[in-house]
User: Fold this.
Amino acid sequence: MNYLALSKNELVKEKTRILNEYEKLKALKLNLNMARGKPSVEQLNLSRGLLDVLNSDSCCTLKDGKDCLNYGILDGIPEIKELFAPVLGVESGQIFVGGNSSLSIMFDIISFFMTHGVPGFKPWINQGKIKFLCPCPGYDRHFAILAHFNIEAIPVPMTNTGPDMDIVETLVTTDPTIKGIFCVPKYSNPQGITYSDETVKRFSALSTLAPDFRIFWDNAYAFHDLSDTPAHLLNIMDECQKNGTQDRPLIFCSTSKITFPGAGVAFLGASKNNLNTIKDFYSVKTIGFDKINQLRHVRYFKDYNGLLNHMKKHRDILKPKFDLVINTLKEEFFENNVISFTEPIGGYFISVDVMPGCAKKVIALCKNIGLTLTYAGATFPYGIDKKDSNIRLAPSYPALNELQVAAYTFCIAVKLATLEKLLEG
Amino acid sequence: MNYLALSKNELVKEKTRILNEYEKLKALKLNLNMARGKPSVEQLNLSRGLLDVLNSDSCCTLKDGKDCLNYGILDGIPEIKELFAPVLGVESGQIFVGGNSSLSIMFDIISFFMTHGVPGFKPWINQGKIKFLCPCPGYDRHFAILAHFNIEAIPVPMTNTGPDMDIVETLVTTDPTIKGIFCVPKYSNPQGITYSDETVKRFSALSTLAPDFRIFWDNAYAFHDLSDTPAHLLNIMDECQKNGTQDRPLIFCSTSKITFPGAGVAFLGASKNNLNTIKDFYSVKTIGFDKINQLRHVRYFKDYNGLLNHMKKHRDILKPKFDLVINTLKEEFFENNVISFTEPIGGYFISVDVMPGCAKKVIALCKNIGLTLTYAGATFPYGIDKKDSNIRLAPSYPALNELQVAAYTFCIAVKLATLEKLLEG
Assistant:
């Protein structure tokens, strides 16, 4: 049934039917959540072995003789740098290992650039109004950091190959107040888009008017594949090195969605120049991060293959959930062109676009009957989705049987909101 | 032998004797370190049981039903707040649990006040030159944070009862650019002085010209006793509440010197006002800290008595080390008034004052023959000890037999530097 082809009478009839479905769901007093990219209990259980690898008898001495139990080693233990170098796509000497949160490292670096400037340049806070580019839809926590520091967020539309690079190039070559961009280059949040080789090359070759322009390359889903033929992301550091722009990218990843969210390890990959500055800065802030947890991760995974095998287990749990939601959307909206959605081959989200003007309504309708979604507008800076159309679904947390109800509930809410909109218009 | 009473000939003769001792020590090719308050391997072993309390079979669900393995709980698990409330001297609802480093929380808060201001006031960065008071001798990492943010550090002399409060009161009531003070109120670093009740009361009653004045109360050695009759520190939050100044103190502690340095848990105790602001700020920076490590600490210590018993074991290891160094100093400088030193009943340091103009020389002489001490001037802002007299000794790390050599080596270096100085003059 294509809503767009229905007469007013047919719309009214369909609305009655859908409202009836909606009331039935309401009667179930649901308590479901597809709001955040939260791993399920099953996924967490995959990493429980991490709690066994160190015990009171363990030798916690590193290859270089240093003791993980004591103070020292600001930038992380060499063993974990080696393990994650291929994930970050840099040499192990180009890695800074932080605490449990890559978001926190991003925040710290922006805070540092605000008060002290990118090395060699004026503090951002003394440069008047400054701006960041934000590929949209995007990640709300990136936008929140910018809002916190009063950095203006300029939305840049996403394409199937990453941010619209024509727009990016035009903006950075005409506006010297644009100081950076937040990117989730692989399995982007929320669309699951992986930047094309050309996009990465164009990023590395950008001629920015701002000499202190930095790319925050948040590779949160570096190998969080959902397919046998995973996406390939070109190595930005290699490309930047070719172009002499190696100080431009700051590459982030963490184990939050590999081991335990909140009790994982976060990484920064960067040029030696950037790394030295950032280490100097952190040396004022802390004596060092949790090396025991770093060691725990090394002992648990052993090597890169151990990491890959572990990710396969995540995939085995996640893939059926994504399939279920996508199949439900396909079935419920078969030949009904009032919705479009992504079919990601990796990452944590499905991005849905409903009829303009309907997203807030859909989210409220879901909320009313016990299904929590990310707040409307979350995927745009300042929470403003001008079209009021984009909704991010996170299928990871609910169990499959719950997810089935959640996905159906979502579809009913979309239908109801769409029908109301069509009947208004 | 009192050097100050010797003739020139006697000084020359003694110098020959001491130089001979110094050369003997040099021949031993020592590699000793009394630089930092680093727990010994024996002390670290006290906490190895912490690595056993959680394993792959553990239930990591909290009393309130939340899962420590997943995202969430920005401000720390309630269980650990309850455990450490008596250490911080605040209610558990007044606690923010951070990562592994209290220094890092101090840094973050100062950074936040710089860019955003104490709530209700202009950002510190927009207030022109601002200043902090620094009781001296003090902790170099506090001074480093101030230097990083270009906050002028004003030294305030320490007395036996804490900072000279006459000076503190005069300064804060005449200079509105003084925005804060760093205090180590119990077993101060490096002197081991505990602030008297009167000092704490005067802090709580300060009439500061700056309305956005904050006390950074770094209670790093809250119950790190070395005696059966531990020092008592008056509860600053209670006193401030009496005076309506409860938004003034920010109270810090961590388990760095209780369990594992770098893999412990850090805490902030503050008024609800301060806490709400700081939580809002951290909610932009991170989703949350390592709750599994928080849970590990709770399960390991069980309750406050568990903590106290654990601290007794630390004391059993540390006390003989402090005794050894202090006895060596007493013996070597019996009736020789060229040195004064503290005899702390808690904390991690012995503070030594050598003859003015000799500290750098002593530290260099030690370094030359393989004994590393904290750099000269470390206990003063900008590394400038005008008298060139104060040296901080940290007896915790070396084993007793090493410490004996280290303490003796230090004494010989002090004697040599003093003799050279006396012969110059």
About this structure: Chain B touches chain A through 54 residues (CB under 8 Å). Chain B has a mean pLDDT of 97.
